[in-house]
Design brief:
two-stranded parallel sheet; about 40% helix; about 30% strand
Length: about 130
């Protein structure tokens, strides 16, 4: 009976840990009120993803990447980032930015939503 209780508690804790730490939330925690907040939020999303154990780079066997990209995107009426184009030298950098930002929901104010943006980024990843 003690083993069954231990198993139940272990499964319960594992489920809680997965829900808390393993879930890939589709909305940023940052509120975007203006263009500066938007740039800061996107850069923070990238730096947060770098420390994620199972990020794009790890999944694709990339240990180092240092590329400049220009991402063009739109914030739609549902506050989702719609990537229009990613220009840069590396296909890996372009694919990374696209998969990270496209369809990502952000907390955008009316001043930011439903507008087009262009943002230059330096993707400097080292494992």
């Amino acid at each position: 009976m003690k083993t069954l209780k231990t198993l139940f508690v272990t499964i319960l804790l594992a489920t809680f840990a997965f829900a808390t730490f393993g879930a890939n939330y589709n909305e940023t925690r940052f509120e975007v009120k203006n263009n500066v907040d938007l740039k800061t939020t996107i850069k923070k999303m990238i730096s947060d993803d770098f420390v994620n154990v199972n990020n794009y780079f790890h999944q694709n066997g990339i240990s180092n990447l240092n590329e400049k990209v220009l991402v063009k995107f739109y914030i739609d009426e549902n506050n989702k980032v719609q990537v229009i184009a990613v220009d840069g030298g590396s296909d890996d950098a372009k694919a990374y930015v696209n998969q990270l930002l496209d369809e990502k929901k952000i907390k955008a104010s009316n001043a930011v939503a439903q507008k087009y943006y262009s943002l230059a980024l330096v993707i400097d990843y080292r494992s």
